Amino acid sequence: MRNLLVAADKYAMDRLKLLYQNILGKNLDVENVATTLALADQHDCSKLKQTTSRCKTETEEGTHIFEIVGYSLKKAGIGAGKFIRSATFAVGGYDWAICFYPNGASQNSRPHSSIYLTLMTKNATAKASYELRLLNNSSSSGLMPLSFSEGPRVFDHVDATRFGVVVIPEKIDLAMYIKDDSITIECAVKVIKDQSSSETVAMMNSEIEVPPSDIVQHLGTLLETKQGADVTFCVGGEDIVAHKIVLAVRPPFFQAQLCGEMKEAMMSRVTIEDVQPNVFRALLHFVYTDSLPDMGNLYDDDKIEMMRHLLVAADKYAMDRLKLMCQNILAKNLDVENVATTLALADQYNCIKLKQVCVEFIASLDAMDAVMGTRGYADLKRTCPYALIDVLEKRNKARKTFFFWKNTIIMGLYTR
């Protein structure tokens, strides 16, 4: 994956590059994260780099403020090694407390004060960094909080491990931080979670969004610009160019009908019979993009006519999906004027579902008389008389059902 990412970056294949970043991001672990981070930095993979940094460690932070009221009395009444403890507070799934020693944690530190952070969760071990701050409660201007901090330390409740300020330096006048005989200590704790837990979370949250494939747009542009075209189709007196390699991989279209001719004679010109130029262009657009071209410039009747011709071409070249798409559009646009013509087309080209829709439309009690007055119906009687049998059978069945329920309702009224 790393080598493929490098190749994708070299050849400016942005989507492929994102795909490989996504795979690497989902498979981070302790062994490979550093190598992946270096790769991300070298090849400007900003999203992978961000994901990598998030995966290194998972932390949780919290802050607690401990206010000691009646400071002078407590200092006078507590000897060295004695402390005042804050309420416990939770950070990162552990309980903590601040211990303040007014006269020092031991005889050696007396009379200077000491401050410690202590892990209170029983039988627990936690890795954390911390910062202890004496806040400015006085009215003295310009006095900044007094801060003491340390990097990650391992706290162990069993061993009563504690970390903090052993001795507040003599040069610091603690009285400057006392107001109304109270002093305030703030403690910020950052708990570093277990590495295995961090990896699991990282792998779940390291999704890198990859945009949808745009190869269809690129192929459509290739057809429009004609760049690299190597075959010309003569269609109704017009020349339409395309690319043999694209046509050859769209079975069974040109493989069955045209590739054989081109292979035999190494032809660069192929004549297409019985297809209009605009229909053949629409056909090629589908071959390249698997979608129909925009027909917003056509009126509704012209669009329906285009769909009929395209359906015939799709049937000729065995393009089943295109044929179904044309049937779907024709079925959605049936009306009294065009349904007979569409039924004849469906019958001729074995469009079973489209034929069923047309038969049901014509056989409806409201539509039959109107359809019979159209030119398309006259053509249908002449060219596809057997298709009318289905219509008449459907209509006869519908009429029998109608009159059955009508008579049932009437009889019910008379017997009351």
TrEMBL record:
Gene3D superfamilies: 1.25.40.420, Apoptosis, Tumor Necrosis Factor Receptor Associated Protein 2, Chain A, Potassium Channel Kv1.1, Chain A
InterPro entries in alphabetical order: BACK_BPM_SPOP, BPM1-6, BTB/POZ_dom, MATH/TRAF_dom, SKP1/BTB/POZ_sf, TRAF-like
Top-level division of the source organism's lineage: Eukaryota
Domain MATH residue range list: 61-189
Domain BTB: 229-292
Xref: SMART domains: BTB (SM00225)
Family per similarity comment: Belongs to the Tdpoz family.
Protein's name according to its UniProt entry: BTB domain-containing protein
Classification of source organism: Eukaryota, Viridiplantae, Streptophyta, Embryophyta, Tracheophyta
